[in-house]
């Protein structure tokens, strides 16, 4: 009977059962040592990965570790009727809702942005109350924009859209100091989001509605997987002759 406690037998058994184990281990040690050497080299130290000030992850853009460039809005702020494309009818609906029932448009935008069913009333009802209070006591919709402007910031961050400061810097070269600093830029963009909702509230809601409808399906249209069980067919056993 063989003694399994014999160290010479154990080492022999391992080498015999896997003759390439020793070679693979040596190769792995060599690769790991090379990786450590490259990491320890001062000139090869890569950028730290994390998130930018606006919550976007640092992904590879033109250079590894740099944030991806922002894109422009699909339509301008004052393009009330939208664009002549496949979403033309949807743009007309957005325009009518924004001018006649902004509470419905805001609730629909928030529901699509959250991609969750049942959140329409949670946003539409508070907006309606603030809308009625503003029109009753101040003669205009001046309170609801205080409640709705964070949705514009959320849309801009989620889809990596260009803000007002960046648009001004791109068109006329101003706001350069704010655009270069991430923290100042985000503070300036948030202030611009509030100003856009306060002074051009209906146009802002319509622009956000057109943007969301081109990027996100309505949560009610999301297909849910359905498990269908098909019963087996009738089986008969034939009797041999």
UniProtKB/TrEMBL annotation:
UniProt-annotated stretches for the region Disordered: 1-48
Compositional bias annotation for Polar residues: 1-11
Pfam families, alphabetized: PLAC8
Amino acid composition bias (Basic and acidic residues), ranges on this chain: 12-37
Highest taxon in the source lineage: Eukaryota
Name used for this protein in its record: PLAC8 family protein
